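ugh finaly. both done.
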Amino acid sequence: MRITIRTFAGSVVVLAGMMVMLSTARAEDFDIWLGLDTADRGSELVLTTSAASAMSRFIGTKVAITQSSNLAEAFTARALDNEAIIGPAHVTAAALQNGYRLIATTGQDTTYALVVRKDISSTEQLRGTRLYLTQPHSVRTYIGKGWLSQMDLPLKAFADVTYGRTGGAGLIAISSNLADATVVEENEAKQWIANNPGYAVVLKTTRSIPGGLGFAVRRDVNAEQRARLLQWVNSPDGLIVGVGKFVAVAASEQDKYNYVISFAATNAPLAPATGVQRVSAGATVRQ
């Protein structure tokens, strides 16, 4: 199986800077780890200063937000040492499994689609074909790997796996005969297929999955601080520039992440597979 990882020089510089995690903080700080998915458009335009300042006013304690696009960090003790974690569905799901509780989200539920060449009509036909996924630790790839494995299609069933930048690039790869299948949000897939007929079809869709970012607070955070955080969430200040407005959720909303948790076995540990290395655009790594 051949694995290709596509990167962009500018993104590598940004990523290197973002990987400087968790500088020494005062014991009284309320630390928040914010994980951003580089496959999401606009993730490089997130500004946290005003949000941290507003939260500090609400809870009466200095809030320090550490922003990172290295989502593998979300599954380490280093990230789990924070009072709160904000991140996409798979990051939030991991936090919920490690002593955190969900208090808010920024997005509506979504579904993902397995998009294939128009001449493919069954998952069995995908064996030996070319798969396009977004960056290894993105939510699309996390869901895609777990979902495909549940269909008895682990990555080793494909002849070629390419890791690129965005889901939209996977659709273009299909139309350019560079890939045979990809996993993207269903709405994006339907819109692209409508605008580019004759290349691809939606073969399957997932169940509903939480969209946007989840805001999870460690269970040992005292009730007063949690209540004040919810006051921030419910106020006009309850947003992060580039992420969006948070909306408070009921405890039952955590159940929606169980489906995402079902993909964990395929994705653990959340790190590049042995023998895979990051390479420049256009290069390939063979396994």
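ok and the 2nd:
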Amino acid sequence: MGFFDKAIAQAQQLAEKAAEKTQEGVKAGQDKLEQAQAKRTADAALRDLGAALYLERTGRGSAETAAAVASISAQLAQHEAEHGPIELRPAGASPADEGPAVPPTTPPAPVAPTSPSEPVPPPVPPAPAAGFSLDDL
């Protein structure tokens, strides 16, 4: 095999590897899309279930509402069987909301004056917890 033949063989191998990586990337993208669609389906079912239960609890439900609760509950059970447990969190919550990102700090204790003529410094106000800007200063 000559130099040119070896170069062509290496180019073909690289092309095959690139095609494999491309297919892996496409599959990963499809999987992520399917997960997002499954989450949207579960979210819609949970919303409908919550609305139906709210109607029942407030005395505005009917036999149709009770049937809807049973049907939606069955749909959610089927969804969990296919896609695994549904991640449940209160509206607006995120994983970061589970605990403080920055531990609370206490202001330092005021330093006692070393001489009677030295004034006492004013206490340091506590730092705001979060959600502040330079306009707050």
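summary for the 2nd one i guess: Residues 29 and 127 are 44 Å apart (CA to CA).
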